[in-house]
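User: My instructor asked us to take a sequence, write out its structure as tokens, and then describe one feature of it. I'm not sure where to start. Here is the sequence I was given:
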Amino acid sequence: PEGRSSDEDIWNILRCGEKIYFNSLLAVYSYDGKSISSVSLQDIPTSIDTLSGRPLVYLRDGSAWQLDDHDHAELFFRLPDACKIVKVIPKGKDLIVVTAENGLFIRSGDGKIQPWFAPNDNPLANITISCTGKYTGNQTVIGTLSDGIYILDADFRPIIHVDKLRGLQNETVRQICTDTDGKIWVSLDEGISCINPQSKFIFFSNNNESLGSVYCSANQGKYLYIGTSKGLYYADFSGRDIWKTLWFRKVSSISGQVWMLRETAGKLLCGWDKGISAVEGPDAVPVNERPGCL
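Assistant: Let's start with the prediction itself. The structure tokens for your sequence are:
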């Protein structure tokens, strides 16, 4: 539009009805197929979205404005303390307002706004939310600036957390998209990751290489054991929750190379370079101390 810089950065494009909206760092522009016009706003826009088929613009001062057919802005609501709005999610007759650093708010049908969680019961405290996405059923996915993604249940409480330890290339999430197969595509500061919450496989990343090379594994009772070039390690595997972080601890009595794990007569035997040991929970006792015995 006339009077605007020709090199503004456009970082969000939204189609609503017959119009296309462009969100720059300073303004919102509307294109009707013939001409581009600037939307008159009272503050700098942080994002643009849709709600009930109408454009909804979030401003820096914590307010949300709906645009009519002529792109005239009408105040929809305003959050306290200039909270940065990330997304507005319908929940029955109410609205859940997701903010970047102040958690969630609920805007009831009568226009009253209050925090969704009690101050001492906020599972999303201390994280910065960057984006959201719709998941299956009543679940929601949120992306964060430094903590990966969370899948929330119908009450917006985390039920799954995926971060770098669980396979993300990077924990700064820029955008989220879900496909018809139930997979979650995540745009990151470093590449793109695809998450399959329905997977039956557990991902474990040995980021610090402290475990060595894995030669064998076994599952007995509530523990998962892995034999490596540096010893025998175990992790609590009770419940078989594929999104539960596996924290491996070392069986202190086995510090050499472990080549074999085998269950015999109800006992787990470990063959390593100092002989054979019987594994009992987080401990192991020697059975045969003959080196190289398998």
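For the description part of your assignment, you could build on this observation: The radius of gyration is 26 Å. Try explaining in your own words what that tells you about the chain.
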